[in-house]
Every structure is written in C-alpha cells, then in structure tokens.
C-alpha cells in the first residue's frame, strides 16, 4: 500500500468566474481518503466547475487545492497521474468502438499493445459491454456509454475518481448498476468525489456530503447529520384500537412532541428529534395499556434538507417513481 | 454482498472488483508514442467513416471535370492544354480544402466531451493536436492522390514524372500542416463544427479562386493581379506546377515552406493555449 495523506482532497477558497458569472465563489472541501464524498447541488450550483478545477482541467482564479497531496496548479501532471474523470458528457469517443476507446486510453497511459488489448477485454467483460465491444459508441445506449466511460477511468486503477453526475439521464436499472460499481470502487479503497443533483443518490452512496448552492458550500456533514440539522423526523404509530386514539395522542404529546392525527383512524404521529425519545414514547403507550399494531421512525428526507438550507427545492431524479 | 449480476449487458461487480484490484501502473509513454497513438485514433475514424474522404475528394474532382471540359477550351485553347496548367493547382486546392476539416473535427471533439478525457490524462499536452494532424495527413495524401490519378486518367502526363508528382504532393501536404493550425484555432474559437466549416471555406474559397490556380493572372486587372501574385496559394501552385513539370522553382518552393513555417509558428502556440484553457 502506498502511503496516502489522510485527506484525499483539500480545497480552500476555490473561485472561478466565467465572464460576469461567478460559477464558484469560494469553495472549501475536505475529503477523507477512501470515502465516497458527495457534492450535492442543483444545476448551475458550481459542481462541475469545482470538479474541473480539482481534476486540473481548468485553473482556479483564486484559492488552492491539493489532490492526493499534490497541488492542482503547480503539480497538475502528478494529479493527473493519480485520478480519473468521468465527465458529465460521457468522456468517450463516439466515433470509435468500445474496445478501441479502452485500448486508446490504455496506450496513452503507457500499456503496450497486447497489454492494452487484454486490459480492454477484461474491463469490457466486467462492465457487461463485451457483446458490443466492436460497435461504434454512438450506437450505444446511455447506460452502456456511462459504463464504458467509467471503465475508461479504470484502465489503470486510479487512487481517486471524479464522478460528475454519473446517472443523469439513466434508467433505474442502469442507475443501480452505476451505483453498484461506485460501491465496488469504494470498497477497494478508491476515493470517489461524486457530483450529483439527486438527493437520493448522495444519500445512497456518500459517506459525507457537501451541499453546494450558487458557488458556495452551504452545509456539510454525513447524510444523517444533515438530516438531523434540519430538525425533526416523526414517529408514526398505528393502534390496535382506533377508539383509543385521543388517549394515545395525550400520552405521545406529553412524552414525545406535537401530535398529528393521520387520515387512518388508527394512526397518529408525533414530531420526534431522535430514536431514543421515540422509544420512550412507544414505551409510554404500552404502560398506558394502549396496544400498538406497529410503529416507525422517519428521518427527514434530503429533499427537506435542501429546501431548508437553500430556501428552494432541489430537482427530483427522473426515475423518482421508482419505489425504494 | 456476494451476489453478482451475470445477465448479459450488465456490469459484473465481482469482475469489476478483480479488475481494479490490479493497481500496477505502466511507465508513461514518450511524447512521440503518445502523438502516434492519437494519429492511430485519426486513422480509426477514417476507417469507420470512409465517406468523410468522399466529402473532401468529390468537390475537387468536380472542379477538375467542370473546369477542364467547360472552360478549358475557352481559357487555354484545348482541354488538354488547360489540364496541364490547372492540375497542379487543383492538387493545391483539393488538399487545402481538406485542412478545413482538421478544424471541423477538432471542434467536433470539443463538443463531445472526449477532450475532457484526454485533458485529464497524464500525457504530453500537445499530443492530441499533433496526433490528429498525423491522422489528417492521411486525408491530405488521399485527397491529393485522387486528383493526380483522375488527372492522369483524363490524359494529364506530368513532365516531372512520378517523382515530380510525388514531390509536388509532398510539398502541398507540408504546406497543409502549417495551414491546418489556422483552422485549428477556428475550431477552438467557434461554437459549432458547422460554423468552422462555413468560416473556413469563406476564407479558403476566395483565396483559392483569387490565385493562379485556374487562370494565368497576366490577363487580370492591375490591382487584382498584384493580389494574386502575393497570394501564398499562387506561390504554392507555382511551386507545385514547377515540380510536376520537372523544373523545380526554388524560390516558390522556399517561399511556400517559409509561409507554412510562419503559419505554424504563429498559430500552433495559440492552438495549444486555447486547447489547454477551453
């Protein structure tokens, strides 16, 4: 194992303007090595610009960043040698075949012809595109293109991968595959910086999240912390006897918090900050002899987090109809 | 998770894990090797879409037939005499037109996102540009060869023989290397491949016609003649004509090469900088 700094990405005060538009207005990031770190924000928040600065594609106007211990401006070549980028537009050559794309990247990274071909075939097989290896990429589906893009990033295993909106425009099945691949990469110790506008995606994959809006980081933490920071979830209870709901509401109101009666005549819920208090509430119901048919504790969704933090709603994943 | 997906068309997570477990890094390739790899990419594109060669050869062949049979008799007395005059010029035209496509294909790359891949790789930075030029040179040679072959089929017999024809083609291709950087700059500055095509031809088309490619400038009005005489395309056509005729015009050849070098010296650094910052 090569020694890695504890922080895979360390950015301080990154800024970038395009003309009059301040795309990134002072972003600080601290991404631990080996983590999946989510940068979450709506379209135009500055996510892609941030990623492009960290991947050395563009130079910041102000601020500095170190990626795997190397400065992105003064040691950009060293950074490029350790990271891979899958761009928002799939960074593959549409006019070549899938295999040619991977062989091309292999050759550019220094593999000899035979080694580049062997590696290409290994990745094509692993990513389920072996059957389409000889077809031009412009005939690929969105999911295949995305997988090829990620495969191209792994021709030589990088220490850090930038995934810029890896599932935008994908159907749920392809999206789940990309998530599986991201998890496999993280399990192997690769750090992943994941830019996404989908709260569900960050919630599913990321160990830590920075919420970014209008070029600034407006909140940071684990998915759980972010949810907790916007306050309460709720404890839902369903009684065995609907006739005793008023009694139960008094008990929960005293033990937990503000009670809301639900449309279901046997159900009610109480605003609840944490799981312990919820447990107390359920215990009190039992002590009062109120039979409980079932209960659950909801945390607030990241959608609510985003709304609370930015004052405007984030976008939904187009496959939002998919039941979790 | 131990379950793996084995349905066709799916990623196999276990295989992905095996693949990324191999963390060996090959030694970085040299600059020339990198540029040659990009040249290989250019060849592959021609292989997959050979029609693109049709684009760049049909127009000059059309001009060759049109001018030879429609205007040849009127301009030079006979079609065969005109063919002798105009074929070396048409060679220049067909290859120079092809250089516009270098800018177009660069612009196409930029709109596709594949450039992000190249720019994020630890490679010598001008390699993609130099490499695509290597690939383009194949197109230049094809475009030029087609014109010469069609000319010979129509009865053109250069006094300089095969050697003269090859030398003329080589000179024109070298000149095109220089000129192509101008279109590369356009390719980096303009918004769409179509805009590059239009702007490119808007420049190269009048320049080609206001040269000695089609007519002897002796009959032109003074100011126009003055322009035609200093037009580098005229100089290149003169050089090409002299090589084909087996009587190399040293001055015209030297001026052509100098113009190509000057174009490259000015526009290559601009191209590299624009490519890096875009």
UniProtKB/TrEMBL annotation, chain A:
<feature type="domain" description="ABC transporter">
    <location>
        <begin position="9"/>
        <end position="239"/>
    </location>
</feature>
<dbReference type="InterPro" id="IPR027417">
    <property type="entry name" value="P-loop_NTPase"/>
</dbReference>
<keyword id="KW-0046">Antibiotic resistance</keyword>
<dbReference type="GO" id="GO:0005886">
    <property type="term" value="C:plasma membrane"/>
</dbReference>
<keyword id="KW-0813">Transport</keyword>
<dbReference type="GO" id="GO:1900753">
    <property type="term" value="P:doxorubicin transport"/>
</dbReference>
<comment type="similarity">
    <text>Belongs to the ABC transporter superfamily. Drug exporter-1 (DrugE1) (TC 3.A.1.105) family.</text>
</comment>
<keyword id="KW-0067">ATP-binding</keyword>
<dbReference type="GO" id="GO:0016887">
    <property type="term" value="F:ATP hydrolysis activity"/>
</dbReference>
<protein>
    <submittedName>
        <fullName>ABC-2 type transport system ATP-binding protein</fullName>
    </submittedName>
</protein>
<keyword id="KW-0547">Nucleotide-binding</keyword>
<keyword id="KW-1003">Cell membrane</keyword>
<dbReference type="InterPro" id="IPR017871">
    <property type="entry name" value="ABC_transporter-like_CS"/>
</dbReference>
<dbReference type="InterPro" id="IPR003593">
    <property type="entry name" value="AAA+_ATPase"/>
</dbReference>
<dbReference type="InterPro" id="IPR050763">
    <property type="entry name" value="ABC_transporter_ATP-binding"/>
</dbReference>
<dbReference type="InterPro" id="IPR003439">
    <property type="entry name" value="ABC_transporter-like_ATP-bd"/>
</dbReference>
<dbReference type="InterPro" id="IPR005894">
    <property type="entry name" value="DrrA"/>
</dbReference>
<keyword id="KW-1278">Translocase</keyword>
<dbReference type="Pfam" id="PF00005">
    <property type="entry name" value="ABC_tran"/>
</dbReference>
<keyword id="KW-0472">Membrane</keyword>
<dbReference type="GO" id="GO:0043215">
    <property type="term" value="P:daunorubicin transport"/>
</dbReference>
<dbReference type="GO" id="GO:0005524">
    <property type="term" value="F:ATP binding"/>
</dbReference>
From TrEMBL, chain B:
<keyword id="KW-0813">Transport</keyword>
<dbReference type="InterPro" id="IPR000412">
    <property type="entry name" value="ABC_2_transport"/>
</dbReference>
<dbReference type="GO" id="GO:0140359">
    <property type="term" value="F:ABC-type transporter activity"/>
</dbReference>
<feature type="transmembrane region" description="Helical">
    <location>
        <begin position="162"/>
        <end position="183"/>
    </location>
</feature>
<keyword id="KW-0046">Antibiotic resistance</keyword>
<feature type="transmembrane region" description="Helical">
    <location>
        <begin position="129"/>
        <end position="156"/>
    </location>
</feature>
<dbReference type="Pfam" id="PF01061">
    <property type="entry name" value="ABC2_membrane"/>
</dbReference>
<keyword id="KW-0812">Transmembrane</keyword>
<feature type="transmembrane region" description="Helical">
    <location>
        <begin position="195"/>
        <end position="215"/>
    </location>
</feature>
<feature type="domain" description="ABC transmembrane type-2">
    <location>
        <begin position="51"/>
        <end position="278"/>
    </location>
</feature>
<feature type="transmembrane region" description="Helical">
    <location>
        <begin position="250"/>
        <end position="270"/>
    </location>
</feature>
<dbReference type="InterPro" id="IPR051784">
    <property type="entry name" value="Nod_factor_ABC_transporter"/>
</dbReference>
<dbReference type="InterPro" id="IPR047817">
    <property type="entry name" value="ABC2_TM_bact-type"/>
</dbReference>
<comment type="similarity">
    <text>Belongs to the ABC-2 integral membrane protein family.</text>
</comment>
<feature type="transmembrane region" description="Helical">
    <location>
        <begin position="53"/>
        <end position="75"/>
    </location>
</feature>
<feature type="transmembrane region" description="Helical">
    <location>
        <begin position="87"/>
        <end position="108"/>
    </location>
</feature>
<dbReference type="GO" id="GO:0043190">
    <property type="term" value="C:ATP-binding cassette (ABC) transporter complex"/>
</dbReference>
<dbReference type="GO" id="GO:0046677">
    <property type="term" value="P:response to antibiotic"/>
</dbReference>
<keyword id="KW-1003">Cell membrane</keyword>
<dbReference type="InterPro" id="IPR013525">
    <property type="entry name" value="ABC2_TM"/>
</dbReference>
<protein>
    <recommendedName>
        <fullName>Transport permease protein</fullName>
    </recommendedName>
</protein>
<keyword id="KW-1133">Transmembrane helix</keyword>
